[in-house]
Amino acid sequence: MQKIKSVIIGISILLAFLCLLTAFFPRHILVTRSIVIGVRKDSIQALLEDFHRWPSWCTWMGTDSAVNRVYTPATDTHQATVTWYPKGHPENKMFISILQSEPGNIRLFYQFRNLLPAGGGFDLFEKKDSTILQWSLEVRLRWYPWEKISGVAMDKVWGTSMNESLGRLKHEVYGEAVAPDDDQDAR
User: Transmembrane stretches, by residue range (predicted)?
Assistant: First the structure.
């Protein structure tokens, strides 16, 4: 009985320490990735504003045939939105909406399963005949220790997916054409 009591006290102290430690972790995580694409920014912006083309380059939307997608066009009262249900289950609902779009800037609203709503978007900067495309995702975390600990790995996990998506987007823009030699990924 004494051993069980010692184990419970030890686990309680460990959990209390974990909660105290995570109190110093940030509640806002900003993940940003960028790439240089050798075309003018207006052609890239048009592709980013067309949610129907996102599944061909955005890894978040999945290529699985079981993914159901619903596209809602922009109206006077609603933003353009894409909603998808991974594995076809309504409880897995995720969506992205375009909050604002102006030349060189697209602001997005993200809702991913099990996370608070997130913000971010795309910034496009012209450099000669190329465009620097910067993609940002700002995630707010709850106070839960396990969620704040997951925030430590968020840049690695989400950033890797964003890098892969940007590479696919670059390929989508170039199509079968050979990319110019002077553009390198800007990270």
Answer: 7-25
Distance from C-alpha of 47 to C-alpha of 131, rounded to nearest angstrom: 13
Spell 21-32 as b/e; 16+ CB within 10 A means b.
ebeeeeeebebe
CATH code at position 13:
3.30.530.20
Phi, psi (deg, nearest 5) at residue 25: -80, 145
Top pLDDT among 26 and 56 is at: 56
Polymer length in residues for the chain: 187
Angstrom distance (rounded) from CA 158 to CA 181: 28
pTM: 0.72
Torsion over CA: 118, 136, 142, 160 (sign): positive
Helices 2-22 and 145-174: angle between axes, nearest 10 degrees: 50
Given a cut of 60, whether residue 39 has pLDDT beyond it is yes
Print the domain residue range for 119: 2-174
